[in-house]
Write a structure and sequence with these properties.
This protein has about 290 residues and is an alpha/beta fold. It has three domains: about 10-140; about 150-220, no CATH class; about 230-285. It is about 45% helix and about 15% strand. It has twelve helices and seven strands. The strands form two sheets. Strands 1-2-3-4-7 form a five-stranded mixed beta sheet, with helices on both faces. A hairpin with a 2-residue loop joins strand 5 and strand 6 (about 130-135). The longest helix is centred in the first third of the chain and has 19 residues, at about 10-30.
Length: about 290
């Protein structure tokens, strides 16, 4: 099986995890949040053309203090200056729309290959006057022991364990252990999301043979694009799944699928692993 990129961007992986357990992510970043009186996700759509959406934003009420928690996850850290500018632009935009204090955190997933120190902020001085001091917290995921996450049963972080420290394990052992940790979870989405994270670290040939196809394909995230209501996206996924199982589809059958009612397409996506032959598919859409 080939695990090509799905219609969604990698950034959606983080947002899906946020939807599953936004409080769990906040507690990982800021342990004191466990005692928070209230945590409310703050949906924000950036209107800046060259800026991607924020990864995580929530309003937190903790010990009578209200503030905004903003988290960015970065898997391709290139330079301190570039990241400082990006985080500052996020800060400015969030501040423009909200007067609460902002606690910013950058989670670096992969260790930068050509950068010794990651600096979370900067200080500007002009004519001996300090005109600005800007700072955000930096968490290096690759320095976190992945087994601590497992010990604390922080399930929402399981897909991100692939980026974490795994001393004493070979690359193969690490991949197999991370996959094994999610394969028995009731929610197959975590398995799908972990594979998406593997794609950011390794070439396909290094992990593909360890992925269990039946679990990966059972995730709703595999069957449907992240952006809901895209009927064409669902039809393309169904055709791709059927092609993987039975080979290139006859042109006539492919046309019938493209003309099939979307409700029936949804049912076929749910049952795609149960079809024994293309004849069964043809019988269903007659």
């Amino acid at each position: 099986m080939s695990y090509e990129s799905r219609p969604q961007a990698y950034d959606e992986t983080i947002r899906v995890l946020e939807q599953k357990d936004y409080r769990g992510i906040a507690e990982f970043i800021l342990p004191a949040v466990k005692d928070a009186d209230e945590i409310t996700p703050e949906p924000v759509k950036l209107s800046i053309p060259d800026m991607r959406e924020v990864d995580y934003l929530a309003r937190i009420k903790l010990k009578k203090e209200d503030f905004i928690l903003h988290i960015e996850f970065e898997s391709a850290y290139k330079s301190n200056i570039e990241m400082q500018k990006r985080m500052l632009r996020y800060y400015t935009y969030i501040k423009w729309h909200n007067d609460l204090p902002i606690y910013q955190v950058l989670v670096v997933l992969k260790k930068p290959p050509r950068l010794k120190n990651i600096i979370g902020g900067f200080k500007s001085t002009v004519q001996d006057m300090d005109v600005m001091q800007y700072q955000y917290k930096v968490i290096k995921a690759y320095e976190i022991d992945k087994y601590e996450v497992l010990k604390e049963e922080q399930v929402v972080l399981y897909p991100l364990r692939v980026f974490m420290k795994h001393e004493g394990e070979s690359e193969e052992e690490h991949i197999r252990e991370c996959l094994a940790a999610v394969e028995t979870l009731p929610d197959a989405d975590y398995y799908f999301l972990l594979v998406e994270c593997l794609k950011k670290l390794y070439e396909k040939g290094r992990y593909e043979k360890f992925v269990k196809e039946e679990i990966y394909m059972s995730s709703i995230l595999y069957k449907e694009p992240y952006e809901k209501g895209l009927e064409e996206g669902k039809i393309k996924i169904l055709i791709k799944l059927l092609t993987k199982r039975f080979g290139v589809l006859p042109a006539e059958l492919k046309k019938k699928i493209e003309e099939t009612d979307i409700n029936r397409i949804d049912i076929m996506l749910d049952e795609v692993l149960d079809y024994k032959s293309l004849e069964e598919v043809e019988q269903y859409i007659q």
